[in-house]
Specification:
The protein has about 325 residues and is α+β, with helices and mostly antiparallel strands. It has two domains: about 1-95; about 105-315, Immunoglobulin-like (Sandwich), CATH 2.60.40. Helices cover about 30% and strands about 40% of the residues. A hairpin with an 8-residue loop joins strand 5 and strand 6 (about 205-215). Helix 1 runs antiparallel to helix 3 (about 45-95). The longest helix is centred in the N-terminal third of the chain and has 50 residues, at about 45-95. Keywords: Membrane, Transmembrane, Transmembrane helix. This is Transmembrane protein. It comes from Phocaeicola vulgatus (Bacteroides vulgatus).
């Protein structure tokens, strides 16, 4: 590449020099022989040689500038490529699994935190509750999982939308998932517009945008309910897990996770974990006492760890 730039510069200097020399000769001829016809001089063979050298000089100058511009673009692309390579290496490092039988790929947690730097809800959350219900619908050893997310809090800075990141499975088409959102106002439910943002994010991770229809001022109360159904998501013959991911908010005072099963199965054991990027492994919070569990497993915590994922892992009695 340096050789090409050298040739461009050499061509400019060479042809530019000949063009300058020819121009000087033509000028001297005009001054020393004023009786000559100027038109004949300008259309003579030496003059055309000068014109050719001038054109070649301009062409080489344009090629040099084009080359410099393309070189700068290549440098920018190389920087972006290096950044992508670094992200891939980070993702590969994050592709560990929590230390129990049910596998939770921490790649999604990494993506949650990466996107969480750009997506934030200006809300101080008083309570966030996620309830997963294992429905009777499904195929094989998997059943549909109905998810209901309740969020209550106070607006810290004016907002008109609420953002939520959801992670699915490779076999799930997000376009087929009917995400609905409601706002509780005066004891009634008002349906809001909820959509999946088409912003080129990873197929396993999508951003759900809920629009209020108007701007909410600081101090306004937020009381949202968002619900959707994952088809063929949870295992009813072996083990599986549900998660409550990155909250994308300023503060969270209280969280609650619960798992209800409408299928006629028995839970053998259940555990609660939490994981944050930077931890060596997922941290065990609680082994659930199954003596009082029938069809619903639940967990609550005050002042949960921010920018982290909470995992409810269960095993089915055989």
């Amino acid at each position: 590449m340096e050789n090409r730039l050298y040739l461009y510069n050499l061509g400019i200097k060479t042809f530019g020099g000949f063009a300058t020399l020819g121009g000087v000769i033509q000028a001297l001829q005009l001054f020393t022989q004023p009786d000559l016809d100027i038109k004949l001089i300008l259309l003579s063979f030496p003059a055309w040689v000068v014109y050719v050298f001038v054109c070649l000089t301009i062409i080489f100058a344009m090629l040099r500038e084009r080359y410099k511009s393309m070189s700068q673009r290549v440098e920018v692309l190389n920087v972006k490529l290096n950044e992508q390579d670094a992200m891939i290496r980070s993702l590969q490092e994050m592709m560990k699994i929590v230390p129990f039988k049910g596998r939770f790929f921490l790649t999604t947690e990494y993506l949650y935190n990466e996107l969480g730097e750009y997506i934030q809800n200006n809300i101080d959350i008083d309570s966030i509750e996620i309830k997963n219900t294992i429905e009777k619908r499904g195929m094989g050893n998997k059943r549909d999982s109905f998810v209901r997310l309740n969020i209550r809090g106070v607006v810290s800075h004016k907002i008109s939308t609420f953002h939520l990141l959801v992670a699915g499975d490779t076999i799930v088409n997000f376009e087929d998932i009917n995400i609905q959102a409601f706002e509780r106002v005066g004891g009634k439910q008002k349906k809001l517009c909820a959509r999946i943002a088409d912003n080129g994010q990873d197929s396993l991770l999508k951003q759900v945008v809920v629009s209020y229809g108007k701007v909410k001022s600081p101090g306004s109360i937020v009381d949202l309910m968002i619900e959707w159904c994952w088809p063929n998501m949870l295992n009813v013959t072996d083990c599986d897990y549900t998660t409550l991911p990155n909250f994308l908010a300023g503060t969270v005072k209280h969280l609650k996770m619960s798992l209800e099963c409408k299928e006629d199965i028995g839970f053998k054991s259940a555990s609660i974990y939490k994981y944050k990027v930077g931890m060596d492994k997922a941290q065990l919070i609680l082994d659930v006492d199954m003596s009082e569990i029938t069809d619903t497993i639940s967990y609550e915590e005050d002042n949960p760890l921010m920018n982290s994922t909470y995992i409810l892992y269960y095993e089915v009695a055989r």
